[in-house]
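Worked example 3 (structure in, sequence out).
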């Protein structure tokens, strides 16, 4: 069992509910959120609307979440209006990745550090890594070293390190394609196995569901079936068995109903997952009324439908396990 300091354990308590399950809300999107708000308003994006939207999400939904994840660039005002019982994670990475070279290389926010994130009142550092385990050693060694540095810096400041892993294939353009759906599970498995190693000092892995639900029997719509539901559950169980770290699921842009179906499959598979960090599945439909009709209408959607989404998700987390089953506090 991995060991953590009492200070890190205290922060983990702040991020989880009484059962030790993480039911967190993600609103750290920046570039994509700006684009969505601009499209909904049918006018160029501005810096004010994205800040206001994050504040609205935080104010209306954090009473029902164990923690909120946001960014230091636009999200700090939102942290000031979160519920007093809601923990805080802050992103350390810049939004997006470098498109001028292969490898989807990430970078850190220039004027941030783990110390500054701690000083802003955060309970954890979150770093997002795009990773293709089958890409060249030259590319992946850089990424491994990067994560080692972030992990060491976070540990030195007495904070939990949440590592978000997003897989891709360097030879494919579309991660939503049927072609990628067929190779995604092994990509996810290899990536989780690598970053569960002790040298990265990861506290919690934020991971993808190891399949694309839009190619799972019963959820596939007009798409071909790549996996039956039983095969999907076996993939969830295999994912669970590959790491001894606490891990939580990200929603990856699916609907609230699809995400809840995935969580229920994980429970039925007896996967030892420890919660969720859910973003767009909870609040995305609020963008249109907020941007096109006004803040009042957006907040009304969040306080009704958004609240319902997060409460339904919390109900679905009854099968999640406590992070305390996987981490031991040092004496």
């Amino acid at each position: 069992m991995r060991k953590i300091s009492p200070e890190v354990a205290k922060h983990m308590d702040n991020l989880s509910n009484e059962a030790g399950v993480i039911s967190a809300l993600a609103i750290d999107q920046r570039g994509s959120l700006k684009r969505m708000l601009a499209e909904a308003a049918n006018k160029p994006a501005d810096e004010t609307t994205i800040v206001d939207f994050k504040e609205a999400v935080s104010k209306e939904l954090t009473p029902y979440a164990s923690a909120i994840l946001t960014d230091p660039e636009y999200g700090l005002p939102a942290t000031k209006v979160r519920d007093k019982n809601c923990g805080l994670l802050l992103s350390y990475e810049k939004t997006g990745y470098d498109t001028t070279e292969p490898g989807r290389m990430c970078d850190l926010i220039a004027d941030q550090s783990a110390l500054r994130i701690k000083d802003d009142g955060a309970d954890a550092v979150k770093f997002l890594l795009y990773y293709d385990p089958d890409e060249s050693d030259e590319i992946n060694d850089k990424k491994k070293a990067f994560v080692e540095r972030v992990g060491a810096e976070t540990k030195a400041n007495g904070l939990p390190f949440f590592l978000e892993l997003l897989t891709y294939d360097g030879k494919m353009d579309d991660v939503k394609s049927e072609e990628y759906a067929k190779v995604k599970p092994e990509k996810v498995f290899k990536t989780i196995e690598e970053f569960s190693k002790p040298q990265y000092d990861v506290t919690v892995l934020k991971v993808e569901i190891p399949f694309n639900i839009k190619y799972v029997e019963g959820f596939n719509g007009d798409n071909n079936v790549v996996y039956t539901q039983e095969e999907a559950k076996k993939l969830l169980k295999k994912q669970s068995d590959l790491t001894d770290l606490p891990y939580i699921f990200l929603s990856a842009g699916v609907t609230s109903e699809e995400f809840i179906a995935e969580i229920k499959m994980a429970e039925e598979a007896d996967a030892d997952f420890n919660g969720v960090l859910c973003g767009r599945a909870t609040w995305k439909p609020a963008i249109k009324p907020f941007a096109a009709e006004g803040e009042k209408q957006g907040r009304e959607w969040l306080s009704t439908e958004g609240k319902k989404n997060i409460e339904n998700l919390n109900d679905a987390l009854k099968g999640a396990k406590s992070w305390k089953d996987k981490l031991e506090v040092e004496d």
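Notes: The radius of gyration is 19 Å. The mean pLDDT is 96.
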